[in-house]
Structures are given as structure tokens and as C-alpha cells.
Amino acid sequence: MSTARASSFNCTECGAGLDALGGGRVRVHICSYCGAELDAQDDYKVLAKYRDLERPASPFSIGMTGELWGVGFTVIGTMAWVEFHNGKRWEWVNHQLYSPTHGYAWLTVEDGFVTYARKQRMASSPTSLSESFIENAERRPSVSFGGQSFRYYSSGRIKPTFIEGEFNYRPSLDESARYVSLLGHHQMLDIIESGQEREYELVSLPDQAATLASFDVPAGRWPKPRGVHPLQVYHQSPFATFARTVFFVASAVTLLIGLMLSGSGQTISQSETVGISRDVTLPFEITNAGRLTEIEIWANAYNSWAWFEAELLDGEGEPVAEFERGVEYYKGSDWSEGSQRVRTRLHLPPGTYELSINNTQAVVDWAGGTEATRYQITVSHGVNTTFWLWITAVVFGVLGLAQMVGPVVHNTRRMAGSDWSDD
Amino acid sequence: MVARVVLVVLVAAMVGAASYAAMRGVWGESSSVISTRAGSPGGGYGVGGRGVK
Amino acid sequence: MVELGVQIEVTGQFYLPVGQAQFDYGRGWWDEFWCLNEQGDGYWLSVDEGDYALERTLPRSAWPKGFRPALGAATEINGIPFRVTEAETATCSAVKGEFPEALAVGETHLYFDLTGLDGEIATCERWDGGEAWSIGSWIDAWDVRRS
Fold first, then answer.
1. Residues A361-374 pLDDT 10s
2. Which of A98, A103, A127 sits opposite C51 (nearest CB)?
3. Long-range Cβ contact pairs of A323-329 (< 8 A, separation 24 or more)
4. Smallest CA–CA separation between B20 and chain A, in Å?
5. Domain ranges of chain A
6. Subunits touching B (CB < 8 Å, at least 3 pairs)?
7. pLDDT in tens, A129-140
8. Model pLDDT for residues A64-85, shown as the tens digit of each residue
9. Domain A266-327+341-361+372-383 - what CATH class?
10. A287, A347, A399: which to substitute to probe chain B, counting the most B Cβ within 10 Å?
């Protein structure tokens, strides 16, 4: 395993004791005490001096060690950055990390979130998105990187404002950089351009609490996240996911039962088709308690109506119920109204019954109408009121959909920090 | 786990109740039917599935 | 993470390190592992503080012509443009296992790392009386797994 010789040395400028934590590939070491930039590859010769830089607030400091996805890292450097856009100012802190097995990386604290970024040696396709390309794009641009698609999130110009510790390259405080941030499924891709250089970094969001705890960040210094990070995946509680499934299944099952129960029951008695002026007497017997009985009158009314009076007697000839019903049916070239059938539903206890229809009338009240000439009575039993099932199916469907509102809201908030607008 | 069982039982009970109400024809009687049996209280039409008195 | 005789997996491919050479560059050292894949083909896996690269030996016929051994120098290998990004003098400090070439402890090697635009790497190695080239690609440390 490759490693570097851990060592301490004295700043060649101010004499302060400094620790070399960052392995053999460290290029420069900026003294925490005097701001001298020392050449780590050449006996710590003084390369430059940074004076009066304002140290940014960060939960991390040089020398802290912790784990990210099970790999140990040491914080070896600190850099503060600023971005100005439309009169607003954003600030964040990058810490250079070092691991003997996973090399150099960045730990970034921005908007209260801690992210991990590592440099990539591949290029995206297209290799970058220019300012004018983003400006003129009709739809949110995207690039392909390592077989994955990354959608444009934001871009801008950034400038470092503070520097301290060890770095595996020579950062410059004077040079500004342009960045383009793109959002993939689990990672963000940052394309950073400064001078002639173009760098690609993949950004991941580690478990925040585990990371802070692993680096032994004191509880009082834990950053407070603002909003939702674009890499934050929606964590629906397993119960909500389960409930959603239950509701959708219940909705489907209820619909199915509804379809099975629709229809008009079993015909238990049917009259002949008779002339409209004739009376009909139709006996029938109910054997089953607690189900609906349906009396259907059909008449061949066409652009006309017909009127019927019905009386229902029980086995002893006692009247049970009476009702009046009209059949109305109108039809044009592209419309129709009413129906040639009219239905009446009753709850009847078991027993024998006799239905008599009399005082029928047929009237034409529409141009081109024909008077109803014939009618027929059908009695069926065991008709279901399926609307109970339709209501239940809708209620469960809505409850299931309600479980999906959370992810939609969350995704909107994830994209809230994007500077892309579809207008 | 208990919550899941309770949810499934509740949902199943509601589906069952809806199916039962549908098959019993609850609230399925036509309006404007006059009960003519003597002594029928209020002339109402057997609401509640007890049929015509 | 990489150890002699322990098979590793890199993006679905398996490699068995059979030889390990350590090169000291003063401030630290790095390892060169001679690895065999499942077909028995040999690869150099260099492991340097989280920078992993997997390379095959480049036949003499493909060596770039007129290569200028200096930082930033541009050249072309197999039609791919490369630029020298690293130049280092290192001493072979330890040797274990099998290699396709003789390596002697204490021998000083001059290394040039060349980087392509899309993750390609080429290495030119020079020592007393010899020169060797290899070509391959950088590997993300998170893609290297012991299997």
C-alpha cells in the first residue's frame, strides 16, 4: 500500500510547527499561522504569502479524521468560496480530504449540507455547456458522463476567499472559475473551468448525521440544513409505502367487486309484450329476504312518452305499495334523452305478490314521434346497489394518491435551487 | 407490524362493508313509491332493510 | 486495499496481483502490481495514494515517435492525444512475486505519466539501458473492490 511519511516541520516563514497529514502528493502547504504558501515538493520554500484572510466558519477543521462510506479520511485543507449573482452572494467551504487508499477529495459545507466530491479523469459528452448555450437552450440541457445522464442544475462564476493547509495542486486565490452543476440520479456532476483547465467532479451526499458523528464534530457545531438538497432522495416511511399499496389494491379489488355485482339481478317473472291499452297482472314470489327487487317497465316510446300506474298486492290481496312511472324517450341525430325502460326498486319481505299495471297512456309531444304501442314488465330479484363500491374505490384511490404527494413536493423542493427556468 | 395488520384489517372491513351494503341494496329503494299497507309507520318504505310492514 | 495474492474486482473484471514492486520517490512511495486477469493476460496496476491506473504493455511498434520527455509535452499514441502530466524519478525499493521483466531493488527509474482527455493514461519508464511504455486508463478508487 502506498503511503507517505507522516511528519511535522516548522514553517519556513514564521517557524510555527505544522503537521504534514496529506501524503506524498501534496503540492503546497499554506501555513495556518502566517499564511505563507510553502512548496511541499521543494523543502517548503516560500512561494507566496496570503495575508489577512478571513477564516470561514465550518464544522470541520484541519486534522479531523472520520469515515465516509467506510473509508477513513483526514481533513488536510480548507478553502472558502464565494459566488455573486444578481446582487446575491453565496458562500461555502471546501475541505481537502486525504485517504491513503482513496486519495484526495473534497468535503464541502454549503447551505448546511455536507457533500463529498472527487475528481474524475473522464470527460463528459459534450465536454461542457457554455454560457451562451445554456442561455439559448429551449429545454433544460444535459450531458452524458460515464454512461449516466446529468441534467443542468446551475452555473456561475466563483472565487476563492480563504486558503489554509495542504493541497494536491497549487490553488490560486486570484483566479476565478466558472462552474456548471448538473444533477444525475444519485450524484451531481460539477464541471469547473479555470484558465485553460477543465475539471470534472462527482458530488455525493453522504449520510449527514453519520458523517458529522464520524468526524467527531461537536453537537453545537453541526450545520443546520436549509431546504432540501438536490441529492436528497425522498425517504417515504415504509408504512406510507405499504399503505399506498394497500389503498391501491383495495381500490382495484373494490372496482372488481363492483363490476361483478353490477347487472340487474335474476329475472323472477316477466309479462308478455302487450298492447299499450291493456292492463297487466303479474304474480311473483320473493324467497330471499334482505335483497332488492326491481320492477322494470319497457315501452316502445319514440320521441314520445307513456304513463303507467302500478299497484302491488301481497299474497292475501292486501295492497303493499303503489307508484306511477313514465317512460320517455327522445332522440335526434346526435342526441338522445330518457330511456325506453324505467326501473323501480323495492325492499320486499319473502312472500307472494301480484303486480297490476293499469290506466296506461301514450302521448306524442315531439315532431316525428310515434306513440308507444307495446309494453312489457320484468321483475328481478337480487339487484345490487353498486354505488357503495364505486364510492369506496374512489376513496381508496384518493388515499393511495395522497401517499404520492410527498415525493412530488420533495422533488419540487430538490429543484428549487436550480437557476434553470422553462420560460 | 401491528399498524400494518390494523390497516389491512380496517381496509378489508371497509371493502367488506361496501360489498355487503351493495348486496343488501342499502339505500337502493326508489323514491316516490307510496307504502299503502295499513299501519305502516309514516308511510315510509322499509328503510333499513326491514322491508314493508 | 490491493494485496499480493488477493483477487480484486474492477468494474466487473477480475484481476489477481502476482507481483508487487514499490517505488520510492522521496516524499512517499507507490506500488506497481503485476496482475493477471481471468484469461491470463498481464496488466500493470499502479496504486498511488488513491490514484489507480490499469495499463497494458505497449508494443515497441506503437511507441510514439519524437517523444519529448518534459512536463506538458504533447504526443499521440494509437491516435489518442496525450500530454505529460507527471515526471518523477523513483527508486525501486522492494520487489515481491512475479514480473514479466527483471526488476532490481535500488535501480532508479524515470517515470513520465501521460494523460488523455477521457480518462486514458500512458506511462513511459526509462532506466539504465531500457525503456518501456504502457497504456490504459485511470480507475476510480471507489470502483476497486476486493473479491
1. 888 888 888 999 99
2. A103
3. A323/B30, A323/B32, A323/B33, A323/B34, A324/B32, A325/A297, A327/A297, A327/A298, A327/A299, A327/A301, A327/A372, A327/A375, A328/A301, A328/A304, A329/A301, A329/A302, A329/A303, A329/A304, A329/A305
4. 9
5. 7-221, 266-327+341-361+372-383
6. A
7. 999 999 999 999
8. 999 999 999 999 999 999 998 8
9. mainly beta
10. A347
